[in-house]
Write a structure and sequence with these properties.
The active site is at residues 353, 384, 512. Pathway: Carbohydrate biosynthesis; gluconeogenesis; Carbohydrate degradation; glycolysis; D-glyceraldehyde 3-phosphate and glycerone phosphate from D-glucose: step 2/4. With 543 residues, the protein is an alpha/beta fold. The chain is 48% helix and 10% strand. It is built from 22 helices and 13 strands. The longest helix is centred in the C-terminal third of the chain and has 22 residues, at 477-498. 6-O-phosphono-beta-D-fructofuranose binds at residues 154-157, 206-208, 211, 214, 267-268, 353, 505, 508.
C-alpha cells in the first residue's frame, strides 16, 4: 500500500480551492441549471438505486475526489486488501472478511496457504449444526428440543449478529434468539429470567475468549444453568465461537462444539464467519448464505466497477469531502424500516473503531480530520426526535437515507406513508423554505402583517443540507448483505485516503486495563493512586 499524506496531494489542493469557490453553492440552483443532475449522480446497480445528487458537489469536485483516490493509491490498496496482504500492519494480519463470502473454488492465501477449504469446512459445520438445532434433531440434556438461543458476546461478537437477526426477523423460524452483551448483571438476569435451562442453548462468542464482559456473562449463565442440571450437561447446552481453543476447553465446552475464528478476520467484520451462528440459527443456514452471497456481489462490484460508478467509493469520497473540507463532524444513517433499527449502532463500531485514528501509517500525528461520528435512528421516529437539528441547527450533517420499494408484509397504505416521509425529508433538506414562502403561507392563513414579520425568521429553512438516498427493492438476506458490505468497503476507502490503519483498535485497550486495576481495588476496598476525582468517586462507591 502506498503511504501518502492526502493533504499533500495535487487533488487535495484542487479540492481546497474548489471548496472555497463552491462552499456556498446552492444545490437547488445546481438542479435548475442541469436537468440531468439526478441521473448524472445516480448509480443504478442490481436492486440498489443510489442517488447522491442531493450533495454539495459538482462534476468538477467529483473528478477531483476521484483523483484524490487515485493519488492515494486506492487501486493498489484494493489489490492488497483482497489479495490477503498484511494490511493490518500494527497487528501483523491480513484483512480477509471478504474470503468468508467468496466462492469455494476461489484461492485466497494466508501465509502461502489457501484458506478457502477451512472457510468451507466451517460453513459446513455451521450449516449442519444449525439444521440439527432448528429441526430438533439435537436436543438438550433432558431430551427436549431447543426453543431459545442466547448469544453471549460483545462488540463485533454481538453487534453484527444482533443487528442482522433483528433485520431479518421477517425470515425467522421458531427459535427465540437473545443477546447478552453488557457486563451489567441486570441485563443478564433479565434475559435469564424468562428462559428454561432445559431448552436453552448458549453460544459464547469471543475471538480471544478473554474479554471480561463475555467471560463474566458466560460464567453467570453457566452457574444459572448448573443450578438445575448436572455438570456434564454443560457440553450439550454451551457452544463457542473462538480462536482460543485452550480457554474454551477450560470453560467446559467440547472441542467438537467449537466453531472457528481466524486472526485474519477482525471482530467488527466477523458476522460472516461462525460469529454469525446465531443468525444462522434464527433464519436457517440457507438464508445466512444468501446474506453472504449478497455481500460477495457487493465485493465484486467494488473490486471491478470503475471508480466513478462504484458505490462504496462514491460514498467514501463524499464523506471525505464533508469531513475534510466542510469540517462536518458527524454523519447520520436513517433507515426507513424498523427492521434496521440496530444498523446505526452496528455502524458505529464498524466505522468509529476502524477510522477513529489520529496517527498516520508512519506513526505520526495526522494534520487533517479522520473518522467521523456516526449516529442515527429509523425514520419516521427520528423525524420526531432529532430532525429539527438537521433542518434548522447550526451543524452540517450529511445523511444516508435507506429505504425499500416494498414492505415485507405488503401493507401498502403504511408503506406509502413511510416512503412519502423518506422522499419528503430529503426534498425538504434540499429545498428548505424561503422567507417569501413563509410569508405567503402565513398570509394565506390570514395572519396580520406584524405577526407574520415576527414569526418569519423562525419558520425559514435554510435547505441545502446534503443527503444520499439508497433505495433498495426489498429487504432480503441478500440485499442486507450488499448493504453491510457497501459500508465495509466505504470504511476501507476512507482509511486508505486518510492514510491510517483501519483494522486495529488499540484505543479500546487503556480503559480495559484500568478497569481491571480498579476492579481489584474495589475487591480489596483499597483505593490507590488516582486523580482526586476518580479517587473520590471510588470511595463514594465503595462506602
Ligand atoms: O472493543 C474491542 C474489541 O476488541 C472489538 O474489536 C471486538 O469486537 C470486541 O472487543 C470483542 O472481542 P472478543 O470477540 O475477543 O471477545
Amino acid at each position: 500500500m502506498k503511504n501518502i499524506d492526502p493533504s499533500k496531494t495535487e487533488a487535495w489542493k484542487k479540492l481546497q480551492q474548489q471548496f472555497e469557490e463552491h462552499k456556498n453553492l446552492q444545490m437547488k440552483d445546481l438542479f435548475k441549471e442541469d436537468p440531468s443532475r439526478a441521473e448524472r449522480f445516480t448509480i443504478n446497480w442490481e436492486d440498489f438505486y443510489v442517488d447522491f445528487s442531493k450533495n454539495r458537489i459538482t462534476e468538477e469536485v467529483q473528478t477531483s475526489l476521484l483523483e484524490l483516490a487515485e493519488e492515494c493509491g486506492l487501486k493498489v490498496a484494493m489489490d492488497a486488501y483482497f489479495g490477503g496482504d498484511v494490511i493490518n500492519r500494527t497487528e501483523g494480519r491480513p484483512v480477509l472478511h471478504t474470503a468468508l463470502r467468496s466462492p469455494e473454488d476461489a484461492t485466497i492465501k494466508v501465509d502461502d496457504e489457501n484458506v478457502m477449504p477451512e472457510v468451507y469446512a466451517a460453513k459446513k459445520k455451521l450449516s449442519d449444526f444449525s439444521q440439527q438445532i432448528i429441526t430438533g434433531a439435537k436436543k438438550g440434556h433432558t431430551g427436549q428440543a431447543f426453543t431459545d438461543v442466547v448469544n453471549i458476546g460483545i462488540g463485533g461478537s454481538d453487534l453484527g449478529p444482533v443487528m442482522v437477526t433483528e433485520a431479518l426477523k421477517f425470515y425467522k423460524n421458531h427459535l427465540n434468539v437473545h443477546y447478552i452483551s453488557n457486563v451489567d448483571g441486570d441485563h443478564v438476569q433479565e434475559t435469564l429470567n424468562n428462559l428454561n435451562p432445559e431448552t436453552t442453548l448458549f453460544v459464547i462468542v469471543s475471538k480471544t475468549f478473554t474479554t471480561q464482559e463475555t467471560i463474566s456473562n458466560a460464567n453467570t449463565a453457566r452457574d444459572w444453568f448448573k443450578k438445575t442440571a448436572p455438570g456434564d450437561a454443560v457440553s450439550k447446552h454451551f457452544v463457542a465461537v473462538s480462536s482460543n481453543l485452550e480457554k474454551v476447553g477450560e470453560f467446559g465446552i467440547d472441542q467438537e462444539n467449537i466453531f472457528p475464528m481466524w486472526d485474519w478476520v477482525g471482530g467488527r467484520f466477523s458476522l460472516w464467519s461462525a460469529v454469525g451462528l446465531s443468525i444462522s440459527l434464527a433464519v436457517g443456514f440457507d438464508q445466512f448464505d444468501q446474506l453472504l452471497q449478497g455481500a460477495h456481489k457487493m465485493d465484486e462490484h467494488f473490486k471491478k466497477e470503475e471508480l466513478r460508478s462504484n458505490i462504496p467509493v462514491q460514498l467514501a469520497l463524499l464523506s471525505v469531502w464533508y469531513n475534510n473540507f466542510f469540517k462536518a463532524e458527524s454523519e447520520a444513517v436513517i433507515p426507513y424500516t424498523q427492521y434496521l433499527q440496530k444498523l446505526p449502532s452496528y455502524l458505529q463500531q464498524a466505522i468509529m473503531e476502524s477510522n477513529g485514528k489520529s496517527v498516520n501509517r508512519n506513526g505520526k500525528p495526522v494534520s487533517y480530520e479522520t473518522g467521523n461520528i456516526i449516529w442515527g435512528e429509523p425514520g419516521t421516529n427520528s423525524q420526531h426526535a432529532f430532525f429539527q437539528l438537521i433542518h434548522q441547527g447550526t451543524k452540517l450533517i450529511p445523511a444516508d437515507f435507506i429505504g425499500f420499494k416494498e414492505s415485507l408484509y405488503g401493507n401498502k397504505d403504511h408503506h406509502d406513508k413511510l416512503m412519502a416521509n423518506y422522499f419528503a425529508q430529503t426534498e425538504a433538506l434540499l429545498m428548505g423554505k424561503t422567507a417569501a414562502e413563509v410569508r405567503q403561507e402565513l398570509d394565506s392563513k390570514g395572519m396580520d402583517r406584524e405577526e407574520v414579520e415576527k414569526l418569519e425568521p423562525f419558520k425559514v429553512f435554510e435547505g441545502n443540507k446534503p443527503t444520499t438516498s439508497i433505495l433498495i427493492d426489498k429487504l432480503t438476506p441478500e440485499s442486507l448483505g450488499k448493504l453491510i458490505s457497501m459500508y465495509e468497503h466505504k470504511i476501507f476507502v476512507q482509511g486508505v485516503i486518510w492514510n491510517i490503519f483501519s483494522y486495529d483498535q488499540w484505543g479500546v485497550e487503556l480503559g480495559k486495563q484500568l478497569a481491571s486495576k480498579i476492579l481489584s481495588e474495589i475487591d480489596k476496598s483499597d483505593v490507590s493512586n488516582h486523580d482526586s476525582s476518580t479517587k473520590n468517586l471510588l470511595k463514594s462507591y465503595i462506602k
